[in-house]
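REQUEST FORM: STRUCTURE PREDICTION
Request ID: SP-0412
Submitted by: Lab K.M.
Chain count: 1
Length (residues): 450
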Amino acid sequence: MKQKALRCALAACAAAAAATASGQDSEPSTKELLNELRRLKERVETLETRHESDQQKINELEERLQKVETTQADHLAPAAQPTGGAEQELEALLGTGTPQAKPSPEAKSAFTLGSIGVPGQSFNPDISLNGDFVAAYSNREGGKVDDEFLFRELEIGFSGAVDPYTRADMIVTVGREDGDFKADLEEAYLTFLQLPYNLQARAGKFRAEFGRANPIHLHAVPWIEYPFVIRRYFGDEGLSGTGAELSWLIPNPWNQYMGLTYELFNNDNDTIFAGQEGDDFTHLLRFKTSRDLSQASTVDLGASIATAPNDGGHGGHRATVGGVDLAYHWKPKGQGLYRSFLLQSEAYASHTETWHGGESAWGMYSAAEYQFARRWKLGLRYDNTELPNRSSRHERGYSTYLTFLQSEFLFWRLGYIYTDRNFEEDGNSDDQQVMLQLNWTLGAHPAHKF
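STATUS: Completed
RESULT:
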C-alpha cells in the first residue's frame, strides 16, 4: 500500500512538472524537471528499501513474541487456573483486577463482611461440623474403652468477624457421657485483634495455652488420644477455663517469633487443682519461640507454668505445674506434599501442697511422625508419667499409629497402644488396645494451631 501511494505521488509530481514545462519555452527548464524527477525517484526507492527493512524487523519481533507466549502457556498449563468468582476474588485481593463499574447507591448501602476483610461473606458466620468415630478393642474389661464402637464426639463450630477489630469463635460438642449423648459448650470466645504494642486478647471460654498438645482439640492431634501426662494431670479433656488472655508478640533483634501469654481463668479443673470448690483463679504463663534452621526445617521451644488452689480456700494449699516443650519440623522444599517429619516432646513437673506436706511428680511424652507418601503417615509415641497426687504410682505407654489421609476433610487412623503400670486399675496392671479412628469435617473448619 505504501509503495503504491509513493508511485501515485511520483506520477502527480511528474504531471505537474509536465504542465509547468508546457507553459515554458526554454530547454533548460525541461532538463531541470528531469533532474528533479530522478531525485524524487531515488527518494522513493530509498523509502521503499527502508519500508521493507522495517517490515522484516516487525515480522521477526512478532515471531519472537509468539514463541514467548507459547512457552509461558506450556509452563502454566498443569496448574489449575482460577475461574469465575474465584478469579475475580483473587484479582480483588491483589488489587490487579479490571476496574469495576461505580456501584449504585443501593449497593453502597448494602453492608457485608467483605468490607472488613472477609470477601464473599454476609452476616452469616462460617459453620463447620467435625465427627469423630472410633472402633476399639481392649483386653481390659470394665475400663473406659471396651470392645465397642464409639461415636466419641460431634463438634459444631461457628466463627467469623464481628467487626474489623474483633473475631468470634464458638464450638459446641455433642458427646457420650454416662451412656447418653449430651451437648456441651467447649469453647466460646472473642479475640481482639487490633490492640497496640503487638498485643492481642481473648475473653470467654477456651482451651488453656499450656504446652503444645493441650491447646489443640482431640481430633486434630496426631494420635487417637491425648498423651498420658495430659490426661493424668488435667483430665481426659485437658486444661480449659472461662476467663481472659493477653498475649504479646515480643520484638527482638533476631527477627524470630517470640510470644508471651498470660491467662487468668476460673479454677474449674478438679484433677490437680481444687476445681469449682476453690475460691481463687488459675494463673497461667507461657513463653514460646520459633526459629528456622533452614528452608526445610524449624524448631519450636516453649515453657509453661500454671498455679491454682487445690483446696476449698483462697490458696492456702496450692498446686503448681510447670512444663517445657520442644518440636522439630521438617518439610523439604518442593516435596512438602509427599515428605515431612515431626518430632515433639513435652515434660511436666508438679508440686501439690497437702495437709501432710507436699507431693512432687513428673511426666513426659515423646512422639515422632513421618509422612512417607502424599496420603500416608506413620507415628510412634512413648509415655512415662507419675500420678501427680500419688507419685509412687507411674505408668508407661508405647504406641504406634498409621494414618491414611483420604482427603483434606477425612482421615483414617489405626493405632495400637500398650500400657504398663506398677499398680492395678480396674483390676489390670497393663492394657493392650487396638483402635481405628474415622474423622471427617464438613464446612469451613478453622485452622488449628501450629
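NOTES: The chain has five helices and 16 strands.
Reviewed by: T.R.
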